[in-house]
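Two entries, shown back to back:
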Amino acid sequence: MKLVSSRNDKVYDMRVCRATQFVLAAFLVLATLTPVYAQGFGDARRYNGYIDAEPLLIVIPDSRDCALAYNAESDDWDKVEFSTPLPGEGSPVAIGGDVAVFVHEGVAYGYSVETSRWASIKLDDPKTPGIPVIGGKLAAVIHGDFVYGFGAKHGVWAKAKLSSGSKAKPIIGSTLIKVIDGNVMLVFGEASKRFSGVDLTNGEMVKLR
């Protein structure tokens, strides 16, 4: 006897197929996400003086006049010292699998797991707080009329001037940072040492300041 599938069976099979595709897509997205942590250095006391985000470990001593980073992949320590102690509250630190970034006393600090070293850059207006954002192997800080970028590959900071009074925000993916400032798109990739820019109206490269 020949069996003939009904229309309802076909609709059901199509729904099952779509549901399976959705589950697989969600799994692939989740599998590629990098864990990101954000907390204040004031929280370090509740965590016995350290912030753990393997393979990175950040230690804050009781003196709070320095921060030490341990890289489990290279079995290496690096230390950054401050002229004034870290406050007991605030000073949010953003930590991903390959970078850690925070701002203290008008200076942005970034640690790269790939270089096992801290790097710093002085912000344009040290009196205005800067809040770091992070994604994958990259971090960004929008501060005043400047955007600052940090990447794990080279472990160096870069900055670019925005238009006066710009409200642009960094968009961070797994491999690049985008900032759309009016008609200009600024880009900082995971292999970058500096920002580059393109005019969205005519496709010309923009000379950045």
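entry 2 starts here
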Amino acid sequence: AWLELGERPSGAEALGMLLVGAALGVVSLLALRSPRPPQAASSKR
């Protein structure tokens, strides 16, 4: 899906990428702020 965007970046797909990026950013911030051990954050998808 990432490579497909290089051919024709449609508005819907661009919004989806932004939403995914924002979600990952929020999750990463919450993970950093939470007192959980770094081992739990090691499992990333």
